[in-house]
């Protein structure tokens, strides 16, 4: 609502932007009675970890820099009539990395798992390494091919075996020949 109020106050210069903004669903903000600037309103909506999973679309560099400082807020902007999703900010990448490490098994639990395995005899000894056994393979496929018959060096393959291509003639129809002859006589 604050963005729409700001666009209305800026007048006819941003009338097109106002029409576009009105097409989208309007989210209620905490500034009903006393609207603030659009950028301040957007920042207040994503303040507590972006619980509604908002995307921020802006061309304002100041707002974009402030959004990049917050983790988990995707940033959209327009370059030559194309909407572009900005790469994740370093804050967002660090936040995701922290979440992944927190979801893994904590160190004290890893140590207790190793101790339990040692008690049960399931732990692998460092000296004990199993090697893969080589399995017997089949015969070499090249050795299974049929042997080629050798021809005598002085003889060439007989003439019967040679294939000759016959030449095909394109025969012109007799009527066409007659019409050509008549044209020559005239």
Automatic annotation (TrEMBL):
Boundaries of every UTP23 sensor motif region domain copy: 130-149
Residue ranges, compositional bias (Basic and acidic residues):
106-129
Q: Which residues form a coiled coil?
A: none
Kindly state one GO CC term assigned in the UniProt record: small-subunit processome
- What is any one GO biological process for this UniProt entry? rRNA processing
Q: What's this chain's function?
A: Involved in rRNA-processing and ribosome biogenesis.
Q: Which source organism does the UniProt entry give?
A: Pterocles gutturalis (yellow-throated sandgrouse)
Q: Does the keyword Metal-binding apply?
A: no
What name does UniProt use for this protein? rRNA-processing protein UTP23
